[in-house]
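In the present case, backbone shapes were mapped to integers, as reproduced here:
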Amino acid sequence: MQPEIRHGSTRHQVRLFREPLLQALQPHYEKIAAAVPGEALCLVSDRLLALPGFTDVLGNTHALQPDTVFHGCRLHEAAIRSSGPGLTFVTSLPASPTPAVTPRPPAPRRDDTSRVATATHLLINHRAHGLNASPLYIAAGEGVVRAADPHRHCSVSLDEKGAIVRQEGELAVHVNGSRIAGPTRVAAGDTLGFAGSDTVYRFIHVASR
């Protein structure tokens, strides 16, 4: 078994041996087997069924397709639907002996500089990079790159109103999980991400001494 790990443009392969995996998974398999009565059929996901040694402990298994729940809902639509043309799922939650509603404080507005801390640094892999008027160029998975780097995806700079993110390449840039459509203001606590990448950087405020 050789899973592949990608980091930027670099690919790493990890070789895993079957026996250590079986030893680590065996206690979990035994707990599952103890909870299954007799020769009952176990309906499991295809990923669980692919784990080494799983079928040796629970032989009577059947893999469910990823879209099984969807097809089940379509098949039993009349029984599931409570009202209207769509499907309405109702979840019963345990009642509290003393029910109460706690109002959620409103989120601070972006133009309220007294409440939102200005982003002074961008935290990348546990290293804080200071922001200033000169653009800081960022690439997904690589962090800070040179201005001339053709793989740069966005830039971050600081002006009198605070930090601003600009897209520099074709790759979509996300702030707080949403794609930006143009230059976007950010504050401390906001996150910077990229389409198709798990990389997330965070803007922080570092108080001056």
